[in-house]
Amino acid sequence: MSGRTRDTRAGRRTRSLLTVAVAGVGTVLLAAGPAMADGFEAHTTDNSPCYGVGGAIDFVDYGPGAPGGGDNDDYTVIHDLCDDGHGVEGYAWLDGTYLGKHYNGNGYAGDPEVWDPFGDIKGTHLVGIKVCLVDGASDTTPSYCGSAQQYVNG
Fold it and tell me: In this structure, what DSSP letter does residue 43 have?
């Protein structure tokens, strides 16, 4: 075995130990501040016959969601996942301020609805999303709601 091979193996071990040490420090640093997300989701809690969930809302930090195609920054996608006669409604908050709601009654075979109540978020903010089953866009008694919130860095 040549000296070069031995040095390479030793170098790999050193790099591996350094990577573990850096990863450990990174974990401690992340735990000290708010969790950051590139995207997250919430689901209805209805135990639907369609995959166990009737609806979902995704927050997308950046991705293909611009009207007419292309990429968009900071938006939601609302999914009606079951053709069960219920629609779903998504709700949004930014730093505790309610931004509104959006209805999707397309059913499982329908398209998800892209909704952008946030604009382009700058800096670190707390994003809240919620999704509920509803019987039409004017339903005043949403049910089986699920929600989530995360800090995002725009």
Answer: E
pTM, rounded to two decimals: 0.72
Q: What one-character-per-residue DSSP string does 81-118 give? A: ---SS-EEEEEEEETTEEEEEEEE---TTSPPEEE-SS
pLDDT digits (tens, 9 = 90+) for 124-148: 999 999 999 998 888 889 999 999 9
The CA distance from 143 to 135, in Å, is: 9
Residue 133: closest CA among 60, 48, 75: 48
Q: Is 1 exposed, middle or buried (0-12, 13-18, 19+ CB in 10 A)?
A: exposed
Cα-trace Rg, the chain: 22
Structure tokens at 129: 């999303």
Rounded to an integer, the average pLDDT of 90-104 is: 97
